[in-house]
Amino acid sequence: MKLATPQLFVSSCLLFFSLVSALPLAVRDAYAPPVTYPHAGTAWKVGQYHNVTWDTSNAPSQITNQEGQVVLAKGGVLDYEHPLAKNFDILSGHVEIQVPNVEPGDDYTIVLFGDSGNDSDAFTITK
After folding, report:
1. 35 touches 53 (CB < 8 A)
2. Most buried of 45, 73, 76, 91, CB within 10 angstroms?
3. How far apart are the C-alpha atoms of 78 and 91, rounded to whole Å?
4. How many C-beta neighbours within 10 Å does residue 15 have?
5. Model pLDDT for residues 21-75, shown as the tens digit of each residue
6. Residues 6+ apart with CB under 8 A from 119
7. Torsions phi, psi of 29, nearest 5?
């Protein structure tokens, strides 16, 4: 049986993709360190500076993305357009932020992103 050139090409591609898909992917660890500050009972005032902190004691040896970002959320709605901090090393365990000019409330959280995400307990922001 003689295969035509297009059939040979398609057969070769299928063989290649089946072999590649059978190879194991490199081991990568998702890292979502728990936020330690702010915590429940914390009250921040607009304009103040605070260190957002997280626990790095259980960091895996291979982290997919070590570049961190901190985002403020109110009532579970994240403000992705105005990150409080970005482009910092997720293994540092802290980053300083300035409390933005937002409406007072007691349902704010901080979300820490690296190669995964983790949020703080709800806390209060006042004017």
Report:
1. yes
2. 73
3. 23
4. 10
5. 444 445 555 678 899 999 999 999 999 999 999 999 988 877 777 899 999 999 9
6. 35, 73, 109, 110, 111, 112
7. -110, 130
